[in-house]
Amino acid sequence: MSAADVGFSHFDTAPLYGFGEAERALGIAFGGLENITIATKVGLYPPGGSDQGRASMFARKVAGKVICPLSRAIVDLSVKRASLSVEGSLKRLRRTRLDLLLLHEANINLLNSDEWQRWQENFRDKVRWIGVAGPAATVEPFLKSQSPIAQIVQVRDGLTTHEADVVGAAGRSLQLTYGYFSSGAVQNLGEDVLREALLRNSTGSVLVTTRQTHRLATFARIANGSIGREVS
User: Fold this and answer.
1) Which of 100, 117, 193, 226 is a good FRET partner for 109, with 20 to 30 A between their CA atoms?
2) Residue 27: which residues within 8 A CB-CB, separation 6 or more?
3) How far apart are the C-alpha atoms of 226 and 153, rounded to whole Å?
4) How far apart are CA 108 and CA 149, in angstroms?
5) Which residues, listed in sequence order, are joined to residue 75 by a DSSP beta bridge?
6) DSSP state, 184?
């Protein structure tokens, strides 16, 4: 709620994040608010599912530090799992329709299949927009092939690495970018990083992550002051 109070209007999540807890928290906070948009994902899932008990989730996180498969994300790009995931996300987010559904680090050869095309059409009443999310190497094939699945592209970017240039190379404007705050070294310079990120992506939304709520108002002020729009 602190983020929304200072002007943030878009939130990014996935069943994988917090073993489903991130979606549940957003559902409690914003489930009935139409002025807040939420993006969630399919393709990567937490081991044990997104609705397991807290004890199981905690045990997997702790034991996973020693036995990696216990906490490693499960990759499943089947339409059956995607269908179940959408229904689960709607329930956790307390919504009747998803604003944006992103295919998490997807494989273009699989997702350009007739099966996935039919799946999109069948879920039009439950998903407003669909797109792809991931690093440049993942989204670039979708851009080059002009895949109809990639209506929206969320891509990792950096102020020095410029991974999101693949979007411009495909003749499209930047939409959703993230990754500017990935290294611990930039955390202390968060305000400067955000200013440069907003200048780099002046046509879409920059995703930011912080555990320090006192930074939210500053981030919102920078976004609205330098670009005249909101951050996510």
Assistant:
1) 100
2) 92, 93, 94, 95
3) 24
4) 9
5) 44
6) G
Say whether 193 sits in a helix, a strand or coil.
helix
Could you give the angle at which helices 79-93 and 21-30 cross, rounded to 10 degrees?
40
Does residue 228 surpass a pLDDT of 50?
Answer: no
Backbone angles phi, psi at 75, to 5 degrees: -95, 120
**Residue ranges covered by each domain of the chain:** 2-46+78-226
Please provide the size of the chain in residues. 232
186-223, pLDDT tens digit by residue?
444 678 889 999 999 999 999 998 888 888 888 888 88
* Distance (Å, whole) CA 209 – CA 156: 13
167 φ/ψ angles, rounded to the nearest 5 degrees: -70, -45
Write out the two tokens for 134.
Answer: 């991931």
Long-range CB contacts (< 8 A, 24+ apart) of 55-62? 57/19, 57/21, 60/19, 61/19
> Residue 57: is its pLDDT beyond 70?
no
Q: How far apart are CA 31 and CA 91, in angstroms?
A: 10
- Cα–Cα distance, 87 to 198 (Å, whole number): 34
Distance (Å, rounded) from C-alpha 11 to C-alpha 22? 10
When the candidates are 3.40.50.2300, 3.20.20.100, 3.40.190.10, 3.10.129.10, the CATH number that belongs to 2-46+78-226 is: 3.20.20.100
| Interval 149-169: pLDDT, tens | 888 999 999 999 999 999 999
Mean pLDDT of 135-146: 93
DSSP symbol at 157: -
